Amino acid sequence: MPSIELHYWPTPNGHKIGIFLEEAGLDYEIVPVNIGAGDQFKPEFLKLSPNNRMPAIVDNAPVDGGDPIAIFESGAILLYLGEKTGQFLPGDRRDRQVALNWLFWQVGGLGPMAGQNHHFAQYAPEKLPYAIDRYVGETNRLYGVLNKQLSDRDFIAGAYSIADIACYPWIVPHAKQHQNLDDFPHLKDWFERIQARPAVERAYAKGKAVSQAATVNADSGRFLFGQTANSVQAMGRQG
């Protein structure tokens, strides 16, 4: 049995965890969660991730030697794995706090704003100029914030860390977010630096292999968008 089960689909949040596991050289197994087919609402997955969002992991070999432990939410998973392995999470208290600042910046800002950018610009059945401009503009602002942070360092918190691992997958779809990396030279240098890392290449290759076996069809929209408390509870009961 692998020490880590990675329940994921190759989205930006999913890729974060794949990158960490490859970088750390951990023994892990991918358990696909096809979000376009509604796998995130299956009872067995909801036991791991009650928010019906992937990724989630199961650590079959926790540090305390106890029973397997499940962790959901990508930021929490990165923090857990950093603490478990002692990798990509600075030991110095001040440096650690910088990395955590930017980890939470990503999960509270870059990810949600870029996600809304994706939704209104690509998936929404009605193209609403105000919504598109709002989220494209906010994504642009956040790119500027990150570009400034990288103006005097190779990586976000100084040394390569979970902050970089969290942010990079959300910059990969920059063209779909209507952002030009040439406008952010420090960010572009950082992006290319991480893109060339062998572990990152391996993580994305494994994600591509997972997604190639599935398609998003006409029914996928009801799983991906427009969920309410009632629909989530109903799907959870149906499995």
TrEMBL record:
Residues 92-216 form the GST C-terminal domain. It comes from the Bacteria. The keyword Ribonucleoprotein does not apply. CDD domains: GST_C_YfcG_like (cd10291), GST_N_Ure2p_like (cd03048). Gene3D superfamilies: 1.20.1050.10, Glutaredoxin (3.40.30.10). It holds the Pfam family GST_N. The keyword Transferase applies. Residues 1-89 form the GST N-terminal domain. GO terms for molecular function: glutathione transferase activity. PROSITE patterns: GST_CTER (PS50405), GST_NTER (PS50404). Its EC number is 2.5.1.18. InterPro entries: Glutathione-S-Trfase_C-like (IPR010987), Glutathione-S-Trfase_C_sf (IPR036282), Glutathione_S-Trfase (IPR040079), Glutathione_S-Trfase_N (IPR004045), GST_C (IPR004046), Thioredoxin-like_sf (IPR036249). Belongs to the GST superfamily. This is Glutathione S-transferase. It comes from Rubidibacter lacunae KORDI 51-2.
